[in-house]
User: Fold this.
Amino acid sequence: MNTAKTIQTSKTPKSFGFFDFLYKYGTLITIGLLIIVFGVMSDSFLQPSNIINILRSISIVTIIAIGITISLSVGGFDLSVGSVASLANALVISMFVWHGQGVWMSIILTILICLSAGIINSFMIVKLKIQDMLLTLAMMFVFQGIAQTYTKGATLSQNMIMPDGSFSTGIISPIFAKIGQVPWIIIIMLVVVVIVHIFLKYTKHGRYMYVIGGNMEAAKLSGIPVNKYRIATYLLSAAFAAIGGIMLGARVMTAEVNSGAPYLMDSVAAAYIGFAVLGAGKPNAIGTFVGAVLIGILQNGLVMLSVPYYAMDIVKGTVLAFALAITYYKSK
Amino acid sequence: MTALPILAMKSFLEGEEMGEGKQVKLQMKNISIEFPGVKALENVDFLTTTGTSHALIGANGAGKSTLMKVLSGAYGHYTGEIYIDDDPVHIRNPKDAKDLGIQIVYQEVDTALVPYLTVGENIMLDYTVNDMGKKQIVSWGQIHKRSKEILEKMNVKVSSKKLVSELTLAEKQMVLIARAISKTCRFLILDEPTAPLSHSETEELFRIVRDLKLENVGVIFISHRLPELFEICDDITVMRDGEFVVQESIQDMTQNQVVEYMLGRKLGDQFPKIDIQKGETIFETKNFSDGEKIRDIHIHAKKGEIIGIAGLVGAGKTELCKALFGMGKTNSGDVTLHGKKLRLRSPDEAVRQGMALVPEERRKEGVLVTESVTTNITAVNLKNFCTMNTFLNLKKEKKAAREVIQNLGIKTPSENTKVQNLSGGNQQKVAIGKWLITDAEVYIFDEPTKGVDVGAKKDIFELIFQLAQRGKCIIYASCELSEMIGITDRVYVLYDGMVAKELLTSETNEEEILFYSTGGR
Assistant:
């Protein structure tokens, strides 16, 4: 409900421009409207348990979207995060059920392997100078294929049947399961948002990244090691995608084929909606979180209103377009 | 709008005899326009006629470009009246202006051209967009035929089938002029057309302007280069701070008078006269090459010395500046500073070793237009504004930004204003200002006065002298010969990527520099 309060208490700027106002607060207004509409139409929507439910449901989207936000901040774009998340999900579950590893070992190994995906991305983008969107699109297929090949197209879970007919013996640690449960999943998300917000807004490195995103040529001529930061960016987005995939694994305790793919588009939407939140005008962590909240509320509210699942995407897409329209429409 | 004096609208293309054509009068009265927070124009009057060339001049931010954007329909929300031959006309969008025969060629030529289309298609773009009517099929033959006619008429030797992306800047400008006169053109506005052009290219442009005048086209010419205006223009209008100052026949004015009107005060001497104590030689290059354009460069500089890099456009000045800043493809040869050999493989290495560069293309390379003045100023030296080398100290940043703004006299509402909202001269000051808070030893300036008005120019020269006084080496590259004479101690003249001659400024003159720049021996 914080967001609703923000709207009421927010002071309008001195030179009141209606569209400036919409640009800054459009997303928050949309969220407020949705809360009112869903709250009126469904009794259970505003129950604390449901609010926690919404936060839980957006946590994975938010973390993957934070990775995209970082790649956007240097003017890049990483489309491969969904596949990296799938890969991380498959890897982390397989560490438990196939290889009998402990929690920390599984998580660290998974992140390290996913970072190598980031290294491939950054090498191809920075050194071979392939356009980021095209390259990560290509790599999206590659990583997806690697994940599928690794699991041989099967769903991984405890006691799964192995190719030789036996049952797997590895056990998924109950500590690992905690990561995917309330409150930890929400706490991890909030910590990531806050850390990345501080990183982008209040550290030298974040500033450099925005400078690179603003004008790469000028950044280079200002003596900023542009390529190092761009490499770091793709590593970070792969790392956050990996964390997202690990949390997904902890939440469902299995690894399905392409489990990360559905998160890609929601994450991209969240990051882009985040541009305009409070008039930032550039990718930013808090905005991305707000974008994810918008998507989460929408999804949850539509379920509450028993909108059939097959029609949900229509409403979801429409409201997203509306939120984007009021934030991007300017009176010139 | 269509009920206009059609008789007077004759197309340049049709080549009708217009020498004795009726002179058409264009008058703008009480034009005012406001942007959020800024009153850009206030009750400006402007009067010109076809068949003459009219200079429009003013300091950066005086409102010349804004006035011309009003005239060409780019800004529709002005107040005031526009008359053509005493008939009021309405210009609220670019199409209105074009229908009235008012065409504009903007300074940034690349914004108006489609690089992967041919010259012919670009010239005929207006036709294809506006005048095809119900026709759906593009006739390639006709497009190339007509564009070729126009180019021939202008006496420009560019194939209409070439891609625009392969053209030089000057040729792109010609394409835009060709597009402007492909339709009815009674008034042609040229916004700082000569800024990026070399001497011979400028001559070529002037020839076209003279031809157009004979064809009864009224040319409105915005420029900062006074000698040019006196060469090519008949009348002059001076603006200052969004207001009309004076309109005269240019013969009745002197250059100094124009400058006084522009500034509203006497200019005084442009170049500061300060004697600077020179130290020992600290910067030196030997056999320096970038693997592409420049080769075998031997230059050296003392502490507090300003050395000039002269040469024509294309002689390799910018390439030399960039190579010294670690941007060369494969640098070879030695560069030493304080006797220590420098490794210059990337700009960030160059900065760490005490080099600074104010690049030529300031919007593209020098400033971050979408970021605040503060961000721009601290970008090169952000580590000094950090605690634990990581977290930004926003207060310290703000203080430093305010100091720079004050010291350089940057005209900005606040340190948080985005740089894109500043005028050209002030953007340049930001581009220079960001290097002042670093501890560089060698400052390289590449055409720092390009597109900057006389008032701001003087400020920039003073800044450069201050740096020299602090014992820095200054490398000053420019094709403005008067600046070479005015500001430097020694000049290296580049010709075709090599140092053709080293000259002592006190013993040379503009003619001699030009002589060696053009390959004289």
Observations:
- The domain at 280-354+440-521 of chain B is CATH 3.40.50.300 (Rossmann fold).
- Residues 199-214 of chain B form the longest helix (16 residues).
- Confidence is low (pLDDT under 50) at residues 1-20 of chain B.
